Amino acid sequence: xxxxxxxxxxxxxxxxxxxxxxxxxxxxxxxxxxxxxxxxxxxxxxxxxxxxxxxxxxxxxxxxxxxxxxxxxxxxxxxxxxxxxxxxxxxxxxxxxxxxxxxxxxxxxxxxxxxxxxxxxxxxxxxxxxxxxxxxxxxxxxxxxxxxxxxxxxxxxxxxxxxxxxxxxxxxxxxxxxxxxxxxxxxxxxxxxxxxxxxxxxxxxxxxxxxxxxxxxxxxxxxxxxxxxxxxxxxxxxxxxxxxxxxxxxxxxxxxxxxxxxxx
Length: 264
Description:
The longest helix has 14 residues, at 203-216. The protein is globular, with a radius of gyration of 18 Å. Strand 2, helix 1 and strand 3 form a beta-alpha-beta unit. The protein has four helices and 20 strands. By secondary structure, it is α+β, with helices and mostly antiparallel strands.
């Protein structure tokens, strides 16, 4: 039997293994992450103690590794605090680098990230229509569409899937639909690469959308972001370092044992 933890970061949910004897193969991760069949999750991370913090390896629900998942990183920090591996502040080493995490309380974590690169405009054609948006990387590739109407009208799954696999993005891309009701507020929905569906939240997507809003003059920091999961994430900047701060919900919700039936 394998001990697991279940965590949620503003609706982005994860399975976690703390210092397992071995990394599970992709097919096992895929099986565990299947909703309705097994435990279900947007992804899985493995957490290990290091000399100066913790290291995490992140895998999407399709079993493939990803360099960065910021909601997953915030949840990894919360799990490390829960396990007594840190107190208040902790560096987390990911495939995209080292990030400082700060514990607000047992339900909220702030993580520091470098200010994102400047987005660049792209207009991939889908079904004969140019879809103008902005592309940038936040550890992983993101394409951001500023949606002119309510996000309830956005074809997140259909258009998101088409753009995620578009040849303009050789690595694939997460596709974000964003709206800015005011300069201080952003709404977002995301189709995630590796999950191959809409998720309730995406931390790197939140930062990508924020960067686009700033570049277009439609947003300013600090920014309050409404996720599909109903949670609000905050994006701010550290005036001394210039680094960005992503803050909000990150909770350990369960601990249990993975049984053989979870691999069906």
